[in-house]
Protein: Agmatinase
Amino acid sequence: MGGNGKEKNHAAELSNHFSHLKIADAIENYEDSKYVIFGVPFDNTSSYRRGSRLAPNSIRIAYDNLESFEPNYGIDLTQCKISDLGDLSVYEDVSYVLSEVEDVTRIIFNDRKIPVMIGGEHSITVGALRNLKDVSMVIIDAHSDFRDSYFDNKYNHACVTRRALEILGPNKIISVGTRSTSLEEITSPDYKKVRFITANEVRESGISNVISEIKNSISDSVYFSIDMDGIDPAYAPGVGTPEPYGLSSVDVRSILTSISDKIIGFDINEMTPLYDNGNTSMLAAKLIQDFIASREKAILNKNIK
Amino acid sequence: MGGNGKEKNHAAELSNHFSHLKIADAIENYEDSKYVIFGVPFDNTSSYRRGSRLAPNSIRIAYDNLESFEPNYGIDLTQCKISDLGDLSVYEDVSYVLSEVEDVTRIIFNDRKIPVMIGGEHSITVGALRNLKDVSMVIIDAHSDFRDSYFDNKYNHACVTRRALEILGPNKIISVGTRSTSLEEITSPDYKKVRFITANEVRESGISNVISEIKNSISDSVYFSIDMDGIDPAYAPGVGTPEPYGLSSVDVRSILTSISDKIIGFDINEMTPLYDNGNTSMLAAKLIQDFIASREKAILNKNIK
Amino acid sequence: MGGNGKEKNHAAELSNHFSHLKIADAIENYEDSKYVIFGVPFDNTSSYRRGSRLAPNSIRIAYDNLESFEPNYGIDLTQCKISDLGDLSVYEDVSYVLSEVEDVTRIIFNDRKIPVMIGGEHSITVGALRNLKDVSMVIIDAHSDFRDSYFDNKYNHACVTRRALEILGPNKIISVGTRSTSLEEITSPDYKKVRFITANEVRESGISNVISEIKNSISDSVYFSIDMDGIDPAYAPGVGTPEPYGLSSVDVRSILTSISDKIIGFDINEMTPLYDNGNTSMLAAKLIQDFIASREKAILNKNIK
Amino acid sequence: MGGNGKEKNHAAELSNHFSHLKIADAIENYEDSKYVIFGVPFDNTSSYRRGSRLAPNSIRIAYDNLESFEPNYGIDLTQCKISDLGDLSVYEDVSYVLSEVEDVTRIIFNDRKIPVMIGGEHSITVGALRNLKDVSMVIIDAHSDFRDSYFDNKYNHACVTRRALEILGPNKIISVGTRSTSLEEITSPDYKKVRFITANEVRESGISNVISEIKNSISDSVYFSIDMDGIDPAYAPGVGTPEPYGLSSVDVRSILTSISDKIIGFDINEMTPLYDNGNTSMLAAKLIQDFIASREKAILNKNIK
Amino acid sequence: MGGNGKEKNHAAELSNHFSHLKIADAIENYEDSKYVIFGVPFDNTSSYRRGSRLAPNSIRIAYDNLESFEPNYGIDLTQCKISDLGDLSVYEDVSYVLSEVEDVTRIIFNDRKIPVMIGGEHSITVGALRNLKDVSMVIIDAHSDFRDSYFDNKYNHACVTRRALEILGPNKIISVGTRSTSLEEITSPDYKKVRFITANEVRESGISNVISEIKNSISDSVYFSIDMDGIDPAYAPGVGTPEPYGLSSVDVRSILTSISDKIIGFDINEMTPLYDNGNTSMLAAKLIQDFIASREKAILNKNIK
Amino acid sequence: MGGNGKEKNHAAELSNHFSHLKIADAIENYEDSKYVIFGVPFDNTSSYRRGSRLAPNSIRIAYDNLESFEPNYGIDLTQCKISDLGDLSVYEDVSYVLSEVEDVTRIIFNDRKIPVMIGGEHSITVGALRNLKDVSMVIIDAHSDFRDSYFDNKYNHACVTRRALEILGPNKIISVGTRSTSLEEITSPDYKKVRFITANEVRESGISNVISEIKNSISDSVYFSIDMDGIDPAYAPGVGTPEPYGLSSVDVRSILTSISDKIIGFDINEMTPLYDNGNTSMLAAKLIQDFIASREKAILNKNIK
Ligand SMILES: [Mn+2]
Ligand SMILES: [Mn+2]
Ligand SMILES: [Mn+2]
Ligand SMILES: [Mn+2]
Ligand SMILES: [Mn+2]
Ligand SMILES: [Mn+2]
Ligand SMILES: [Mn+2]
Ligand SMILES: [Mn+2]
Ligand SMILES: [Mn+2]
Ligand SMILES: [Mn+2]
Ligand SMILES: [Mn+2]
Ligand SMILES: [Mn+2]
Structure:
């Protein structure tokens, strides 16, 4: 039994009949795509409720039930040039995973495509940021994630914003939805270098004032990172570290879609199907659609290709 | 062993000790009832998350925990002349089921009673509509349900509003909560013949403006159909096709109770206990109570019997 | 709106379209039936894992998936003259419920029919026994149920066998599968008046010796009561009081079917869908089928009607 | 083997290595504590969805994931002098349990400490109230709990507010979130002696008006009782008796924290992990933190110790 | 943005970092593989408990936890030349799916490789069989699957064995574990053309006699089809149509591994993760390993490559 | 508020009303006890299905439902002098936890008491073994746990038997139920220094021969460690790493109780309530009872105190 030409034809012929699980609207190859989706099934630094390693496929399965047409923007997602690379090969070590994410997103950024990374836990965001400078960052998160290290690990998912600050510098990061932090974090002199808009502040100021503030302070290139626990557990029950009194799903969508034309990288993370009723996977899937559809619409409106 | 008179007395005597599962306030016989509840345990055209065939009994069990007294309206539901016929005998074929629903609701409408149909999937609504003309229809739904056919089936649950339009004609149908539709549907020339009030529009206009619009456009006879997925998954997690960014449970109640005096037929559908924590069954049970109590109160206020 | 003749015809006409949830093979009326199934949705004396009140409908729903034909006996269950009365109307008080069960089963016994009672908790058995004398009783149970009273209640489900002994007298009761009892029970002078065949003894003697012993000691009329926790939790996970090291499902079937020709009353109880994966409901449903099919076959073989 | 001195040293030495499950911030002994947490794992008068007996430990496990620092108030909970006594030893009889609660809270009140009682079912509140007079009471609840007795039991959880009225007298009790009551209750002449602020009224008046009313009517000492079903099932799915159309979690927090400086006793009850996705336990845990942190902050602001 | 050479290198470079979900030991390409695994995520003719469409990925995820080394046979699965093609692209129509399965397995059979098909429902087996003649077939199944058609569909999963008989002819098929059939099936004149070894017969004869009978009657080429419901629900709770009194997992393994050297095609189906605790996925994964490891060992022993 | 004498009396008085969750029969203080139960809520080296950190309390809650009287041995467990210390205080680092277990069990062994340790994961066993020499060890496990290190950690739960061999030396350890190992492990020259009795071997030899072999090879002092995954997933579904084809629960009980008179230390581990239906907790609770009751009975028989 060998690998002669005839058999290779069979492999090719067979591949027409098969598909790997991917985001339903990701009908393009990498080369022809603008949005490059991939999963990072890693949850090794999480301690409370694990399972975010199972999220990428759970979100792909949920996405399958969404219409390709997004009526708010009049956008057909199958026209949006989306590819889905599958899941990054990961191992136990967070440093290795971050380095893999860094390598992969470097290629994608260099090709002027937009990475759409599905976690896994929040720690993975740092790998993508390492390729960036002079960009703003918007984070949705219940937690400040501002520890210098956690369990002796600087790359624990509780340290993401701190690592981001080191990479991007002061006054570049806005984190929305904060309602959990530690004394150690809040009293850090660096804490003020990030703008934490608490969930209470969103409720008090109103979402449109929050969006105005964000719009006024970001630069033209934004990395957007959604930790699903930023959203209230009523809307996103299946997360690793639920915190009451969160943002509404609609407010998170508003923030995302109001600045999507500036977004050059995107991730969504910390969802765990082990504690979900299916609706958190669905919301994560929809947020990916909202991001791409709103961005395409904004670009159409600007007559920019 | 036979069927002599003595034994028949025994059957009658026994029946005093037994009850079939029914809506707790449904203490009337059909003849003496005004509201005629029945279940349609059918979910055969559903593909994503099945299980709505199990909803009627799940809702009956949940209803059992509600008080018979509805304090918002000061109405005692046991005085409302409600009967519960049990579940329609259904088979695999949707056409057969629609024809059964048509036959049964024809009798109920002819007797000037109000059918309260518990699905099962949304497709069943079409059977009831076939008996009606010159009525308005109000639908709560996340989906436009406006496909001409789906999987080669014109009676799939994705085609309900389209079928309704064919029966009732243009400018008769208002569907509230829309946030999922396809390009094929939205570009259909018939799409404008239905008023789709999107969930976004409800949030932007406010529920009282939406209710005003509905009140201004409906006729004196309204068929009201609640696809539970119109409500946000936070409030109604156990549905077949969850869609984020939905209506609040309170807003749906407001729409329903503000026009209940004009409602001549009612259904509630697409709930599935397989994905529920029990609270969707409870909300469906309560919406049935809200409908009947608010309608009875409105009628009392009008001094109409 | 009234109750005139025309409307009554409508009620009758409607009833052709509807069915209440019942055991699928229960196609007879009470008068024409030989086996009279009914549920007793009562679990009020249970303290550990409640929910057996939900079992009757759960078992009916599972039964729906069984074939009507039982191949081990070549019996078509739809020919077995089975009726299903629905669920007994129960209230919180166990004494009331027992008295209802007593009244209902008295009628059934008097009509020379066989009650097939679906619990609900084990306590309900006592109501049926009150109508019987000079009968043997076979119980499947992990527990001796031999307390004189429990939580000040002589009718708690922990006292069933003790109450049965008081009704039927010594050397009439065999309880198979025992593996949990208290010092108070085992040292009671009455304990020896019941033959407790422990689960260990079944494993050591072998099921055929156990069946021989049972056959040798019972009289021609047997009441058979299955507490589902007699079966090992591997086969029957959804029970109120699981006990490891139980009987196999096949052994319980063997005991039941080997003496079914003598059984004049039957119940199955203590199943709770709240802790089930669906398979305990299915096993309970199948045991009902096994009982009726094996009994009918045995009667056919004896040329007895 | 004996109890000599040497061994006792071992017991003491061992105890340094062990901890019993308790609220993570409860690092004080009873004597040195101001807030005295304890569980009452009792759910025996509950009939619909049991399981609140499992809530105290479920809430302790959830609490473990909260930060000790509460950023809204800038309070470190480990500085708040909290002890956790474990769970009250309970038996089946509600009268016994109430008497135990009464004894325990008498000691705590006499020591001028604040009991923080974790149910279990709502009935337990009555035990604490028996030690109080001339205090106001604020209740969060979906139900009026105003039956005189239920299932022949005056201490059923459906009678809590009625019992409270008998103890505290008229115009002392405000119950917020009401949306379920019976005709018997609402027509009782005593019903007006309690101020029931319905969930509808909260939505219509706005939460700040509600809080103003509460502040204006309470005395300087308030007992605060949270029946978790007062909160909407979207935020608190795991409760024994869910009722749609409830209060938001944020509104309940606002009421609680706005008057926490006057609270001299607190309980939280009716949560059941059997129907939870983990988020109801977390919300209950957080409400305990909100209570203590906001109270400590208010006291700091008043320069009162 | 285009598709120039440089970008294509990037796509290739990226692909080194990614993998699609596949059976962990499937480290070969199609050309170099001997065992060709693929999923068929189709469950459209199933009516009772759907969800087998989700089984292929659930089994792949479970497989990930198995050691690559199979100690019973001393075989390292990574040396067994296994490929995993992913999941067949399926649509709603069973005829289309069967035709796809037929096309794909024809190529695999022609390349003298062994298809290892993961369902989805049992109906898919028929597609593979269409390529075969002069082979024996061994089926593990609780059901005779011998209806001529079901719900007007000859390719329903209840008709698999009947269709197989039409393809393979009489005395070629052995189905083990039968315990559910209908009168219509068992009285069909064709029923005797298949050897149904009931689960009872397995228990009575003993598994080694059953294996001897199978070995004596099969030809040198065998197609092996495992409907997971053949196994008792204690071992395989997560199936679409559970039937009590089934085969033990060990007996099914014994049958499979005793003849694996003759197996030229294999499938495993009817597992549904929606009703599973994870252990049915794991058992299905292990049976795939058992098949391949035992077959490789048998071939090694025969000095056949 | 201080710590004066009067208040201390209150603390003591209060403690009479409270209990911490413990094994129901553990009514003794440490000093007066012979069996010292404690939990080790640690699962940090587990990667597949976490949650064994939640097992100690889950097992305590299940135990609550067992009778104190064990009828197989005629032993009243409340007479067996059992204490429950609660849960060891653990942190993230496995080395720290092992050192804590070592310290605690050293004290217990020195006091000639028997530690009964409830995991948590299997890794914890090593801490207890460090205090022992010249003892035999019997392990129940599906896995050989014989890796030298895993994820760079010599104390991972996959290395337990290897570490045990280093401590106890060759020919001292018997591990029963093996069915998963790696090539690296089985080819290690040290593998033969442990007697691995595979699950297949148990089925082929019969449990009594296995027990004879064990009795013949052990010394007078035995440490017994039960990894719950040694038992088949049918009986123990809630484990971290399920493996099909395991031991029956009855066989594991037989092994344990046949040598319990020689056991000087005992642990039970790897149970996880997150994947359980409640029955694995119950089986673990019962195995603790079986151990103590059978050991006490054996000692009684020997007239040894
Ligand atoms: Mn985060
Ligand atoms: Mn977070
Ligand atoms: Mn619809
Ligand atoms: Mn819909
Ligand atoms: Mn019993
Ligand atoms: Mn029992
Ligand atoms: Mn209450
Ligand atoms: Mn309440
Ligand atoms: Mn089949
Ligand atoms: Mn089958
Ligand atoms: Mn182990
Ligand atoms: Mn293991």
User: Anything to note?
Assistant: Chain F has one domain: 20-301. Residues 97 and 282 of chain F are 26 Å apart (CA to CA). The two ends of chain F are 50 Å apart (CA to CA). Chain F has ten helices and eleven strands.
